[in-house]
Specification:
The structure is a homodimer.
Chain A: E1 2-4, H1 7-19, E2 24-29, H2 35-47, E3 50-55, H3 75-83, E4 89-91, H4 95-98, E5 105-109, H5 116-120, H6 124-139, E6 143-147, H7 151-163, E7 169-173, H8 193-198, H9 200-215, H10 220-232, E8 237-246, E9 260-268, E10 271-279
Parallel strand pairs in A: 1-4, 2-3, 2-6, 3-4, 6-7
Antiparallel strand pairs in A: 8-9, 9-10
Helix pairs in contact in A: 6-7, 9-10
Chain lengths: 281, 281
Amino acid sequence: MQIINHPDEMSRWSDATRARGERIALVPTMGFLHDGHMALMREGRARAGALVASIFVNPTQFGPGEDLARYPRDFERDAGMLKTVPVNVIFTPDASAMYSADAETWVEATQVTRGLCGAFRPGHFRGVTTVVAKLFNIVKPHLAIFGEKDFQQLRAIQRMVSDLNFDLEIVSVPIVRERDGLAMSSRNAYLSPEERERALALSLALRAARDRYRCAPCSGEELVAVATRVLNQTPGVEIEYVEAVDARTLAPASSIHSPILLAIAARVGKTRLIDNTVLSP
Amino acid sequence: MQIINHPDEMSRWSDATRARGERIALVPTMGFLHDGHMALMREGRARAGALVASIFVNPTQFGPGEDLARYPRDFERDAGMLKTVPVNVIFTPDASAMYSADAETWVEATQVTRGLCGAFRPGHFRGVTTVVAKLFNIVKPHLAIFGEKDFQQLRAIQRMVSDLNFDLEIVSVPIVRERDGLAMSSRNAYLSPEERERALALSLALRAARDRYRCAPCSGEELVAVATRVLNQTPGVEIEYVEAVDARTLAPASSIHSPILLAIAARVGKTRLIDNTVLSP
């Protein structure tokens, strides 16, 4: 397993790997890995001869009041986990190698990022699509793998790839949950034991809506109402949004006959958590 | 010489060409070629084994009141000229193959595009950088060649390539002029004989400023004054801007010790013309 810090060296490695006819899979991460990330790694390992995991806490996707400075980091632990996959390369550049001081170019998917988290985190998805475009140009993967927990991120990247003709495949992997249902997230590390307990309300709310939907497909409004009721039952969970949208376009869900994304963002203490589920008729 | 219409076919051609170890040069154009374009083609022919010329009148770089519908087109003539170079491929996609109806992703260099033409053509450079990013991802060139007449476009593309880590080289080629000094442009075809005569004011204004600068380096204000005086002497030439800026950043020129871009945009009749010169101490 190689550790590469500089974009130019990464690019050369990828050129040499492609010249040998090998397929490259990329799993972009911000590190502090958990089993959700490991599911992405296993998917990449199965699909390509060469697997690159990037670890980069991307400053441009954090807003002014957000948790960039305290975002959890543990490179040694991450490297140990990635060695077991194994990945071929950990690409872990410095922010200064990724962004020159006078960088001014942005890549932005303008529609799919409007609602949900995009409405509460202005500039977030612009930072995500920009850094992912950069990673694609540096690592030159044949496929890249993203988790469905960040569903809106997944859709923004799929749009970018299609709209800008990136010649690669986007593969998505379902949410990985703790035994009790909590969606895995690096940010779960922020939770106190009491908050960890309250955080279960998100997955419980989604499960209640899913049960309601399984009983008989219903409108987005109904799903939102069911989920909101569960969240409101737990003190200390502050809803940011509960929304039901078209799972493909993320526009308001217009029909109960196409897949609906039910998505939640909520604060538990100071920690912002997200979770979602897709309901198909 | 192959003519390729579809992005997927172009992409496959480029993959096969790269797999043979050949270098690919791309010259993006909007067609209706003139000797300025041919200088770009010759540069590409000299620098790479495989030369691709794209012809695509890109709708997203035209504003609402601009000349998209009447932009001059003559594919047969263009193809005849390109055959003499020769180019290996003419890539000439339909707008519908380049932009899906729900395309929503934009690439934008936000600083270098603020002044000059960017101030008068909102959205223009966003359309340029977006289509050029798409062409880069489709054609996968090792180098791409642009003319210096569209100097701000050149700088926007250089920024995009650097900021987004496109792994390719941008080569620029000096302005090609008619014998009497008029910068070559497809839009010169719009000019009546009288307008053609008046249009000389742009290159004459730049030459006067250049003469003044050669005498002794002077401030941007002085260069603008000299050029403006010449333009104002010609009736029927309506100045849009005359500006002297730092030739690297396109920010206001701060020092007479670094290269200055003196740029003009003016209307002659209904036709908008641009021209520029770089003055180095």
